[in-house]
Write a structure and sequence with these properties.
- This protein is α/β, with parallel strands linked by helices.
- The chain has one domain: 3-Layer(aba) Sandwich (Rossmann fold), CATH 3.40.50.
- 23% of the residues lie in helices and 25% in strands.
- The longest helix is centred in the first third of the chain and has 30 residues, at 85-114.
- InterPro entries: DNA_methylase_N6_adenine_CS, MT-A70-like, SAM-dependent_MTases_sf.
- Pfam families: MT-A70.
- This is Methyltransferase 4, N6-adenosine.
């Protein structure tokens, strides 16, 4: 269970259990046959124990005290003392939501700490973070040189990952949607690397210009979540991934993928121009009506903001813009089975973030009341997979690489698994 506690302000999430629930029972497929294994996402990825900041002050939202950073980070020298228009807009926006973030986070962290969560790292793992070099985007660039499928081949836009006899199928990852139709997760070797694929999941590994197989997949989705590679100076300096100009996002075939009344959720950076673009240009272009803005608040394992709330460089929160897709053919009539439950505004999702760049929390549990338990879910610009979801992106398997998991043969550690299952079960019950 991901939700540790919930109140009118929002939710506190524990991300590890929700990741692991899809991998408690896996099969590893090799040329020599198959074996049973257990996969657990590495705990050190979520052990954020210290706040980061400059000369700013970090507020401990759980206890109300103030701690100062012992060794402040050096600030980059500004060329000009005055703020530019973008910075002014960002400050105005921050001032408008500051009380919501501060008060709501304090309430949620206090509730979580009363349930013995966010009280410091327990059972910390003294191991370095996985440093797997991801070459998937480069492979997608190379795949663009391949010819597009013709009309006859479009009828075969989906393919099975695991054969009926339990063996690994030969798959074309770049031009067809790949499905793991099994009830078990599978550890498989693809493109020379080992990946962990959840049960009942489907994915397309492709470039932004190759979304046609996803459209021809034939599904209409009730929930679409996207985390676009926004352009910003930090990304440009780090060269972690290729950014996409905002105007190009309009080319995404969202109206062809969305069911009537589909809930569309977009992660947005704290850059005012990006937020304005989503609300005023992107969503209207798709026929999506903005219904709410939520905030993901990132805290340490002891309940502190990961960055100073009022820092001019980095904020401890990110924005989610939620909207409903309204069919242009019948704008006033809804044929959707999705419940038309109003989405409350300014709700908070509080969690310890992953130390891995751009790994976002899974939103299934908090969004379920607004889309229904049987909703078909799609993630665009995905970097990992979720059980029951369809995912697309040029790094869609990035965090499914086996280096991010502890993979253990079941027969060698049956008692360990039994104890861990009991611990996870007790933890979930204590959170109810």
């Amino acid at each position: 269970m991901a939700v540790v506690t919930e109140c009118s302000h929002g939710w506190v999430l524990d991300l590890c259990p929700v990741i692991d629930q899809g991998y408690s029972h896996c099969i590893r497929l090799t040329d020599g046959g198959k074996s049973h294994v257990r996969c657990r996402f590495k705990r050190q990825c979520f052990q954020i124990s210290k706040s980061h900041g400059s000369a700013d002050v970090i507020t401990s939202v759980g206890e109300g005290n103030v701690d100062k950073i012992n060794k402040p980070l050096k600030k980059r020298k500004r060329k000009h003392a005055e703020l530019n228009q973008g910075e002014i807009d960002a400050r105005v926006y921050h001032d408008g939501i500051r009380a919501v973030i501060s008060e709501g986070t304090k309430t949620l962290v206090d509730l979580a700490q009363s349930r013995e969560y966010l009280k410091g790292v327990e059972d910390s793992v003294a191991e370095p973070l996985p440093l797997q070099e991801c070459n998937l985007a480069a492979l997608c660039d190379m795949a663009k040189e391949l010819p597009l499928m013709d009309d006859l081949e479009l009828e075969e836009c989906a393919q099975a990952l695991v054969a009926e006899d339990g063996g690994l199928c030969h798959v074309d990852l770049f031009s067809r949607v790949t499905e793991n139709r099994s009830d078990q997760a599978a550890v498989v070797r693809l493109m020379g690397e080992e990946y962990v694929i959840p049960a009942h999941t489907s994915f397309l590994l492709s470039d932004f210009t190759r979304t046609r197989p996803l459209v021809n997949y034939g599904k209409k989705f009730d929930l679409i979540v996207m985390d676009p590679p926004w352009e910003n100076k930090s990304v440009k300096r780090s060269r972690r991934y290729s950014a996409l100009p905002s105007s190009q996002l309009k080319r995404l075939p969202v109206p062809l993928l969305a069911s009537d009344n589909c809930l569309v959720v977009t992660w947005v950076t704290n850059r005012a121009s990006h937020l304005r673009f989503v609300r005023d240009e992107l969503y209207p272009h798709w026929g999506v009506e903005v219904v709410a803005e939520w905030f993901w608040v990132k805290v340490t394992s002891s309940g502190h903001f990961v960055f100073p709330l009022d820092s001019v460089h980095k904020k401890p929160y990110e924005v989610l813009v939620l909207g409903r897709y309204r069919s242009s053919s019948h704008p006033s009539i809804s044929f959707s089975k999705i419940p038309e439950i109003p989405v409350e505004g300014a709700r908070l999702i509080v969690s310890v973030p992953s130390a891995l760049h751009s790994q976002k929390p899974l939103l299934s549990e908090v969004l379920r009341p607004y889309v229904g338990a049987e909703a078909k879910c799609l993630e665009l610009f995905a970097r990992n997979l979720h059980p029951g979801w369809t995912s697309w992106g040029n790094e869609v398997l990035k965090f499914q690489h086996s280096s991010y998991f502890t993979v253990t043969p079941v027969q060698e550690s049956a008692e360990v698994f039994k104890n861990e299952d009991k611990k996870d079960e007790d933890k979930c019950q204590s959170s109810d």
